[in-house]
């Protein structure tokens, strides 16, 4: 997947004409209006299928995507949980302060005093927003990906300066 970016996850069929209800991994369902040729990737990433987007519409915070040749709900049953991916070179240009989630993986969390608290191993959507999954000295924990907590992101230095909330700020740390 190093050369592709996931833009959505197929969750279920919608209606009787083969539309897929897609959970967005991009900031807007409108992004799918710009896409035509995509790859469908199995959850274990062992299978990749090319696909063509025929139509897209927004519905309740998701995108309803119709793929060419998938014309019935049954044709989507085996694709639940598959990601919709595009070549990395087709990703939109990011504005200042925007980041691709995959670029955050591997960054080291440090506080303003330079103490290391762990390394980002992944991201996930939580009830209150995006969470960074972090492997720290005492085990795994999650940190909200919010501007008041993640105060500085430096992709070149591979670090995120954090002001950790109470309960996370007393984690064991390793010295730089």
Describe this structure in words.
The chain has 176 residues and is mostly beta strands. The protein folds into 2 domains: 4-89, RimM (Elongation Factor Tu (Ef-tu), domain 3); 101-162, PRC-barrel domain (SH3 type barrels, Roll), CATH 2.30.30. The chain is 2% helix and 47% strand. The protein has one helix spanning 101-104; strands spanning 4-14, 19-24, 37-41, 48-59, 62-67, 83-87, 108-111, 116-126, 129-136, 139-144, 150-154, 159-162. A 6-stranded antiparallel beta barrel has the order 1-2-5-4-3-6. A 6-stranded mixed sheet has the order 10-9-8-7-12-11. A hairpin with a 4-residue loop joins strand 11 and strand 12. It is elongated. It starts with a strand and ends in a 14-residue tail after the last strand. The relative contact order is 0.15. The model is unreliable at 172-176 (pLDDT under 50).
SSE map:
Elements lengths: L3 E11 L4 E6 L12 E5 L6 E12 L2 E6 L15 E5 L13 H4 L3 E4 L4 E11 L2 E8 L2 E6 L5 E5 L4 E4 L14
Parallel strand pairs: 7-12
Antiparallel strand pairs: 1-2, 1-6, 2-5, 3-4, 3-6, 4-5, 7-8, 8-9, 9-10, 11-12
Q: Report the principal-axis shape.
A: elongated
Q: Write the CATH architecture name of the largest domain.
A: Beta Barrel
Rg estimate, integer Å: 19 Å
DSSP strand (E) fraction?
over 45%
CATH superfamily of the largest domain: RimM
N-to-C terminal Cα separation, in Å? 32 Å
